Amino acid sequence: MNLLTVFDAVMQQGSVAKAAEKLELTPASVSLALSRLRDSLGKPLFVRKGRGIAPTLYANQLHASVGDELHRIANALGMENEFDPASSKRQFVLAGQSYFDQIFLTHCAAWSREAPGLRIAFRAEEDNFHKPIEMLSERQADIYLGSLPINHPSILQQRVGEEELVVACSRNHPRIGDSLNLDQFFTENHATLTEGRCGSLYLYQLCDAPLPTRHVRYRSDSLLHVMAAAARSDLLCVTTVRLARLWEDTLALRILPLPFSLRSVPIYLSIHRSQENDKGNQWLTGQLRNLFLDMPSLMPAQ
């Protein structure tokens, strides 16, 4: 059981050092446990990759077989049913669209006051139907945030909020003032997310009516980079009102409503079913629900 617990932690964290930190062991102890498990099974589990390690095919197959059972056993023994945010030193891994990372930063101070020893890592990932299932099933993340509904027997998902999309541009834009019409929007040049991204932030997936083609001059995988490009040029961009409000003063952005109807972007929070009774996950899920509970207003605060 102990050897498999160490193996599970290394598979989740992706490195011996991070697994040791999570388990509150030394890296040497983790390496020794992996060696004992390898010798017991008679098959290699990890190979060197650059400065780190990578699981073998056998390790991936083993983890897929035992990962769920380890968490069920932990739940049955109460190992994950005790969680005190004031004293916990657990590390959680959140994953999802890159712009969520910026949203978390504004709440880190409040979380650290309630849970000073808690550590939260964020992994920016593609927003598609497959990545959440893969990451949660392989324990690469504790919670996945995205904009797409997931229908999978191992995944529990809840809708925790939505995002309104707006137009952002420089406050010194030479042609855009306090309003924006349809012709202006499609005449101007744009910065946008990379077309290869599968998420619902891709503009045309959210509109029920056909739209003209935009003149795209800059593309990035990061919505923040897209906004920065618009702030430093004459480009327009489409972003979420939450992120726009967060950066409008720092980037000197002008925020305007879209000149056409567009559906809001849903926010889904997903966990693996085996984590349903984990008190730590329940605490963090509650914090995230509260974070997305209120929809920021497009209108500036009075």
From TrEMBL:
Top-level taxon of origin: Bacteria
Family (UniProt): Belongs to the LysR transcriptional regulatory family.
The HTH lysR-type domain, residue ranges: 1-56
Designated name of the protein: LysR substrate-binding domain-containing protein
Keyword Translocase: no
Record's keyword terms, sorted: DNA-binding, Transcription, Transcription regulation
SUPFAM superfamilies: Periplasmic binding protein-like II, Winged helix' DNA-binding domain
